[in-house]
């Protein structure tokens, strides 16, 4: 989708994003970005640790520093 198309009908772009479509944005025939609808929690696996860091932090009694978060996520 070109910048010109976006400027002409941004409302249609938003409606299509809401329906789940993804877009590659171009400017002067060069790709400059991509648009994706937000991920839905139903699309995330229940065992995905990246989405459970806060839950794990509560179990440990508070916030985590970067090293502790990496340890939980990556097992490092």
Task: Describe, in plain words, how this protein is organized in 3D.
Helix content is 41%, strand content 14%. The chain is α+β, with helices and mostly antiparallel strands and 76 residues long. It has 2 domains: 3-35, no CATH class; 41-74, no CATH class. It is elongated. A two-stranded antiparallel sheet has the order 1-2. The longest helix is centred in the first third of the chain and has 9 residues, at 10-18.
Cα-based radius of gyration, to the nearest Å:
19 Å
Largest sheet: 2 strands, antiparallel
Series of H and E elements? HHEEHH
Helix content: 40-55%
Short description:
This protein is of the alpha+beta class and 76 residues long. 41% of the residues lie in helices and 14% in strands.
Characteristic terms for this protein:
76 residues; alpha+beta; 2 domains; two-stranded antiparallel sheet; 14% strand; elongated
Write the layout of secondary structure elements.
Elements: H1 3-8, H2 10-18, E1 23-27, E2 30-35, H3 53-59, H4 66-74
Antiparallel strand pairs: 1-2
